[in-house]
Amino acid sequence: MLYSIGYATKDLDIFLQQLSAHNISAIADVRSVPYNKVFHDYHRENLIQSLKTQGIHYVYLGEELGPRSKDDNHYNNRGQIQFERLQKSALFEQGINRILTGLGKSLNIAMLCAEKDPAICHRSLLIGEYLLDQHQLDIQHICHDGNIKTHTALQQRLMTENEITPDMLTPECECLKMAWQAQSSRFAYRRPA
Q1: What is the DSSP string of 92-151?
Q2: Domains of the chain (ranges plus CATH)?
Q3: Can you give the pLDDT of all 193 residues of the chain as single tens digits?
């Protein structure tokens, strides 16, 4: 099973309890920068130690699956990452293959990022969308309160939030893509000016 989780303002003990409640056996850290200015418990080295005490494996995949590509071709002329371009890169595909390999070993993996809400995070907009579209893998997003929302449920929410509704001329599959594009345009990483 593949999950995603954001730590946001979450106390480390609650975070670890949520991982345990969902039988997470491995964390795939997909942050481009695995550190936090405020929440030091989530610095990579500190997090590795905390997870180790719980018997949870840690792997860093921010180079492969992070939202801040080092390749200028993945950005538009305004400095915003373009998820469709990033998803076509060899490095991204390498990260996806590492996730799929872990799942093939019967690991319950949770992709970790900082964002509280998966609807505005690359773990859903970049990775979750790709896995559902290309591998029919419906990620289970662990919400801030510990409840689960599927990626397909998240897609429906994006249509609602972006006021996109299927009709006779625009089938749901096109509306889902339009909602994803609108949400990605609003929340994808932008390089500092």
Answers
A1: HHHHHHHHHHHHHTT--EEEEES-S-GGGSHIIIIIIHHHHHHH----EEE-TTS-EEEH
A2: 2-150 (3.40.1010)
A3: 899 999 999 999 999 999 999 999 999 999 999 998 899 999 999 999 999 999 999 999 999 999 999 999 999 999 999 999 999 999 999 999 999 999 999 999 999 999 999 999 999 999 999 999 999 999 999 999 999 999 999 999 999 999 999 999 999 999 999 999 999 999 999 999 8
